[in-house]
Amino acid sequence: MMPHDGFGQDDDDGDELSAWRAELARVKPLDARQRAPLPLPPDLTQGQHERRQREHAEIMQEAMLGPFDAEDFNTGDEQEFRRGSLPRAILRKLRRGQFAIQSTLDVHGLRRDEAHRATQSFLITAQQRQWRCVKIIHGKGLHSPRGVPVLKHRVEISLRQNDDVLAYCSAPTWAGGHGATLVLLRRG
Predict the structure, then answer these.
(1) Cβ burial, residue 112 (10 Å; 0-12/13-18/19+)
(2) What are the distances in angstroms from CA 94 to CA 30, 66, 171, 184?
(3) Cα Rg for the chain, rounded, in angstroms?
(4) Which of 40, 82, 104, 111 sits CB 3.0–4.6 Å from 135 for a disulfide?
(5) Number of Cβ atoms within 10 Å of the Cβ of 158
(6) Based on the number of CB atoms within 10 Å of its own CB, is 117 exposed (0-12), middle (13-18) or buried (19 or more)?
(7) What phi and psi values does residue 106 have, to the nearest 5 degrees?
(8) Which backbone phi and psi does 119 adopt, to 5 degrees?
(9) How far from each other are the two terminal CA atoms of the chain, in whole angstroms?
């Protein structure tokens, strides 16, 4: 019996997937010199246009070559918050894990009140040490009653109540995914 991946594949689909991967392996990217130049949108400078093209190429490269992970799809488990004055681009960088994580707190396995106290204490320490980005591991709630992520919600409440928190979001998969939260702090 083949392992079930959650998408209802049977043995025939596995053969199709193998054939598809074999075909993709033969695909060669176009030489940049053979591509037709795209006209500049009227409201962009040449530099802005080039930056946008580079960003688009990076996103496409990551999408095509990166490993498939079910957490890449929006399942409603994502956390995301930013103070109104914080530019959206900063939150995007945080979501992508582009800030160095300076310290980590693991509240996974604690009771709700213990997690709240630990989170508050950790945030105070982070401010005193002038850490800019920290990670809080709370787990996904898979072993909680009814599978509800109690600690995740408790941590989120603690973060929203703290004025030193500029933004937070679910960590990228490589940093814990939905079982961890990245927090961007105001500089002290």
Answers:
(1) middle
(2) 32, 19, 8, 7
(3) 21
(4) 104
(5) 20
(6) middle
(7) -110, 110
(8) -65, -45
(9) 57
Q: Which domains does the chain have, with CATH numbers?
A: 11-66 (no CATH), 75-185 (3.30.1370.110)
Q: Where are the alpha helices (DSSP H) in the chain?
A: 11-25, 46-65, 88-95, 112-128, 150-161
Q: pLDDT tens digits, the chain, 188 residues: what are they?
A: 344 444 444 445 567 878 878 887 887 777 767 666 666 566 667 777 677 777 666 655 555 555 444 434 444 567 889 988 889 899 999 999 999 999 999 998 888 889 999 999 999 999 999 999 999 999 887 777 777 788 888 899 889 989 999 999 999 988 988 899 999 999 86
